[in-house]
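Hi there, hope your week has been kind to you so far. Please have a think about how the structure follows from the sequence. I've dropped the whole record in just underneath, so have a look:

_____
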Amino acid sequence: MPGGGAGLRLALLGARRAAGAARRGVAGGRRAAMSSQSHWLTAEERNQVLLDLKASGWSELGERDAIYKEFNFKNFNQAFGFMTRVALQAEKMNHHPEWFNVYSKVQITLISHDCGGLTKRDVKLAQFIDKAAASV
């Protein structure tokens, strides 16, 4: 967002979080909101991790509070092996990526749907994904 968009971005983020809590409803909403709040990033944490993630090739999606990265491998077997490693870790974390694969290309979007945006879980999974891709 050009021209002082940081404040607007944080306001939109707060609105998204509130909408996410509202979608969860009253029944169990407090417990879900409390557990998901522990995953939210402070403004300072967010700025730092986004710098680090951008340095490793991740980008912020303008239309969503999410991060995106595209990976290219030598062939389908390498791409699928990479996806399998990520899938096993995602299952352990109970945090699953949005992804798309065609032959040797894997496109990944990370967002915490239950929180309505980017959280510590996304950062942790992104860091794992980068390590997994580097080891292929």
Notes: The helical segments are 5-24, 29-37, 43-55, 76-93, 120-134. Residues 70 and 107 are 4 Å apart (CA to CA). The chain has five helices and four strands. The longest strand covers residues 66-72.
